[in-house]
Amino acid sequence: MPGTELYGAEERQEINDVLETGMFFRYNHDAQRNNIWKAREFEAEVCKLVGAKYAHAVSSGSTAVQCALAAAGIGAGDEVIVPPFTYIATVEAVLIAGAIPVFAEVDETLCLSAEGIRKALTPNTKAICLVHMCGQMADMDSIMEVVKEHNLILVEDAGQAMAASYKGVSTGLWGVAGAYSYDFFKIATAAEGGVMVTNDERIYKLADSYSDHGHDHVGNNRGMEQHPVIGFNFRISELHAAIGKVQTQRVPYVREKNNEYKKYLMEKLGQVPGVSFATIPDPSGDSATFLNLLLPDTETAGKVVAELNAAGVGGFNYWYTNMYHFINQWDHLKEMRTAARLGVEKFGAPQDYANLDIPKSQEVIGRLISFGIRVTWTYAEIDTLIEKVSAAVQKVQQVEA
Ligand SMILES: *Cc1c(COP(=O)(O)O)cnc(C)c1O
User: Is the keyword Transferase in the record (predicted)?
Assistant: First the structure.
């Protein structure tokens, strides 16, 4: 799955270009940089890959979500619907914006469902921060219906699903703005980094300024120009962008291999009684970074994971394992343990985070076992995985029967 599996000479060459000039800053210094603009080239590669009009590279996927929320005008006191199954960065970004996360149910797509969103709406709902989980995509037709019906702002955290799409439109491009992560574990990495994408020039310009203390970057004369908004520093360095550029070029190959292996795994493991899979709303748009198994119930899934771990196989269940991707593990959030005071403490939330009523999410995430798909696998390794998973599932169910 991770881009780091395919790290090689091209990355070293791109990094070396930057080391030769010593120009690590993405703006200005034209004379010294020898016409090397890695951040710009990285952004152009992302636009090409996902079909976005604008891409803006920043320091992380988390700050890309922050930029997307800010540029979309989401701030103090706004209710934002989020899933309870995501990397916690999504929820943190909403909290740091001064906004109020409101948790809605996910379903077998592992993403927010339209039904879940409808139930979580209040008169104060302003936006949805939709997360495309485990390399797959949400069911966009039904979600766009709710978005339009209730005139909501849609922001997408596609941190785990860059290069995934639904009916030909990339994740991240369905709403006002979207975010991708380029951390060490994603389909492509910049060592650390993230990218915000949008098709709206106004949103792009806002994010561009917001991520660099409000500078408008007009005329490549940073520092002397206008400052349309107050911002902060979420800049990416030229070194990180250099890696991100090559890694983005590798994505079509990685995605193709991932899909080939995932299809094979699903075909074989689909024959094992008790095994089904997370719903993929558009299988042709899967980035296929994860194989997502659903077992009959949480208890069985937990036992199967224990068997797999004993057999040295790296599948994990987010509900049992402290993977930090599910609300059950977010005690600091439930108890609102914060460093600085957050907007939610002042404005209040329409739900009690410590006692959320989310039976569907509990049931689905409890049954889920995910496997990272590795682009460097051989078929012999995949067959061994299939054997071990089948054996574990069968053993646990025989004991139960
Ligand atoms: C990885 C991830 C992030 C955070 O990205 P970083 O680059 O690590 O900051 C945000 N959201 C989701 C869904 C992620 O998987």
Answer: yes
Among 215, 232, 250, the domain boundary falls at 250
Residue nearest to atom 12 of ligand 1 (CA): 159
Question: Is 169 found in the same domain as 180?
Answer: yes
Question: Does residue 213 share a domain with residue 132?
Answer: yes
Residuewise pLDDT in 10s, the chain (401 residues): 567 889 899 999 999 999 999 999 999 999 999 999 999 999 999 999 999 999 999 999 999 999 999 999 999 999 999 999 999 999 999 999 999 999 999 999 999 999 999 999 999 999 999 999 999 999 999 999 999 999 999 999 999 999 999 999 999 999 999 999 999 999 999 999 999 999 999 999 999 999 999 999 987 678 778 899 999 999 999 999 999 999 999 999 999 999 999 999 999 999 999 999 999 999 999 999 999 999 999 999 999 999 999 999 988 898 888 778 999 999 999 999 999 899 999 999 999 999 999 999 999 999 999 999 999 999 999 999 999 999 999 999 987 77
**One domain for residues 272 and 207:** no
Between the CA of 84 and the centroid of ligand 1 the distance, in Å, is 14
Pocket of ligand 1 (CB under 6 A): 60-62, 65, 86-87, 89-90, 131, 157, 159-160, 181, 183, 194
Strands 169-170 and 165-166: antiparallel
Q: Which of 38, 126, 186, 205 is catalytic?
A: 186
State the residue range of the domain holding 255: 251-322+361-400
Ligand 1 center from residue 130 Cα (angstroms): 13
CA 186-190-196 angle, 5° bins: 80
Q: Which of 110, 157, 323, 330 to mutate to test the pocket of ligand 1 (most atoms within 8 A of CB)?
A: 157
Catalytic site includes residue 186: yes
Same domain, 245 and 273: no
In the block, tokens 């948790």 appear at 103
pTM for the structure as a whole: 0.97
Pocket test for ligand 1, best of 4, 59, 160, 189 (most atoms within 8 A of CB): 160
DSSP label of 289: -
Residue 224 Cα to ligand 1 midpoint, Å, equals 33
Same domain? For 108 and 185 the reply is yes
> Residue 81: which residues within 8 A CB-CB, separation 6 or more?
102, 103, 104, 112, 117, 120, 121, 125, 127, 128, 129, 152
Q: How far apart are CA 140 and CA 70, in angstroms?
A: 23
